[in-house]
Amino acid sequence: xxxxxxxxFGGPEVLxxxxxxxxxxxxxxxxxxxxxxxxxxxHQAENSYLSPASxxxxxxxxxxxxxxDGRRMVSLLAGGGGYAEKALIEPALSFDxxxxxxxxxxxxxxxxxxxxxxxxxxxxxxxPGESVVVHAAAGGVGSLAVQxxxxxxxxxxxxxxxxxxxxxLALSLGADVAIDSRSxxxxxxxxxxxxxxxxxxxxxxxxxxxxxxxxxxxxxxxxLAFYGMASRxxxxxxxxxxxxxxxxxxxxxxxxxAFLLPxxxxxxxxxxxxEMVLDGRLKAVPGGEYPLSEARLAHEALRSRATVxxxxxxxxx
Length: 317
Known about the structure:
Layout: E1 2-5, E2 16-19, E3 29-37, H1 39-45, E4 62-66, E5 72-76, E6 86-88, E7 94-96, H2 103-123, E8 132-134, H3 140-151, E9 157-161, H4 164-172, E10 177-180, H5 186-193, E11 199-204, H6 208-215, E12 218-226, H7 240-246, E13 249-252, H8 266-278, E14 286-291, H9 295-303, E15 310-314
Parallel strand pairs: 8-9, 8-11, 9-10, 11-12, 12-13, 14-15
Antiparallel strand pairs: 1-2, 3-4, 3-6, 3-15, 4-5, 5-7
């Protein structure tokens, strides 16, 4: 089979298509029709992700396709292996794709949709009427988080994005206001966007200065949910005394931990997301489809922050 294999860590240049043996035959061997691409994959390629990687490595955490019995499934891959024509999937991390949901949408829901669901339901515990800041609101998680916040009764939704076209996209998805993510004083920009008031919830995957200044914009009992570091800059250490002084909460969220929670958290989350797609309350934003042979270009686009929505690879090309 064709697969992207990494034999040395680095940037997009380490993504090389090779001929590899098929995975061992199994009733859970998926013929991959599309593989999802996530920002976390760029960290995995350079071995800067939360869990250390080992070489050689076939990256990719999500696939959609058909099993030998014809079932159409979308699956999370805890150990990677998605950038390939075939992938072994685990039943516990796999979900039947309803008729009417295309490959890109199915992939968008299992990592980025589930992340947005957990951030709003579990990490930040959004209450109706509360103000919500969604950083990187045109991205895979952000574009879905804006829509979920609107569907679940958020008050004012403040989106940030780096270009006018991305800000227009966020507004079209349900944000009330969209501001430039490059604002020098993000604290003031967020408060101004919220009518001069501090904000209740911030979803942040940027890191560095943006995280530091967003934390200062929180209202009493406000919550910042941190789920990535696209800037590759560490935010400042958070002093517990400062949290006490302002009655604020900082939560971290890594989707891999949802695999470990007692009970099945992902299955009802993804079932709800699929239902919202089918009844028109939620849509994936297609961000581009790349041949498997051009996975490097997908990573370059992600790292340059030039993308929106969901990126996928086509293993047949």
